[in-house]
Amino acid sequence: MLDLTSVPFFDNHTHRINVSDRAVTPLDLAIAFVHGLGPVYAPEEPLNSANVENCTPEYEYHVMNMGVVKVLVSLLSQKFGCEASPEAVVLERNKRTRKDPEAYVKELYQEANVIGEMADDGAPYGDPALNCFPTTVYRLFQMDPCIRALLPECCSFSELKERFDAVVREKISEGFSGLKCHLLELRYRKLEVIEDEEAAAVFEKAQKGDQNAFEDVYLALFEHALLLTDELNFTIHLHTGCTGNPNDLKSDTDPFALIPILRDRRYYRSRIVLLHASYPEVRHAALMTHAFPHVWMDISWSLPWLSLNMEQILEEVLAIAPHSKIMLGTGQHDFAEMCWMAAKVAKTALSHVLDKAVDRGLLTEDQALETAEQILYRNALRLYGEK
Length: 387
Ligand SMILES: [Zn+2]
What we know:
This protein is of the alpha/beta class. It is built from 17 helices and 9 strands. It folds into 2 domains: 81 residues, no CATH class; 277 residues, Alpha-Beta Barrel (TIM Barrel). Strand 6, helix 13 and strand 7 form a beta-alpha-beta unit. The relative contact order is 0.15.
């Protein structure tokens, strides 16, 4: 049996976590895993995300019965040596955070041997708020707020592009490892290459709030950023498949939507990372990494959300994606337990999947270990450089 317990884990996709002595309830912890719509009280109400305040007893019942919550309860009960109930594990967790929240988070990270976090966060580079992670922090610069802030200040598309270019250069030189964008959430029409002249022609409409015009201006800037990835040596990260936000749930976030852009020879030398394993289009994401030299993927959000399905997901991806282009991540937010469980689940699932391949004679033991290490941390360090 391949023992990966002590192999490092690089989390390719994280949001800020809370390091606090505040006692939480089982529902606080469980609802952090809901990326769906909250309960609806009346037909005329807007669709909202779920939160502890708007929960109905019926809604709470289903939240507490999500597979990911059961897995977390099981893993924490094994760690704490307590009963496997949400109440018991939360009681134990709260005891530890009340005593020393930093020490508790550090213990979780050390146990999972997390050696890096790629943080998707709006804070400036070097902001102490990101010290919430007791490990090396890599940063993504959020492209969308930057574009929205620059748009009203510019007189033309060429000025906007120039200023966007300058910001990206500055941010990468500050130390950011790449850009985060939301191209597929944002765009409602089919993706196709937008030339600068086309963006320039709709610039004023975009400034006035026209959605189609904004999409075109944004896409033209995204294409410019693709060119910069090669020159400045960085990556662009974007959600495909499940975006994580229930209000972004769209039917056209398949990673294949990017093909018209990626097939353009001008962008062949760019570097794109597809996030969230493009779930449920996992196979499509894996095939994209196979078909396009400039596409990588991570299995985040699927990890740890789809913990019960992780072996199958890994098998699908390992079958077609170069093992050198697969990374793992979480998409975690608020709770350090998410990364801890993601690392645990990933290592267990990888052991089983790779053991099976070794048993069948499809991989040697050395190859299996190499693959495990690549996916768990080496690919990320190779792509972003060791700090
Ligand atoms: Zn995400």
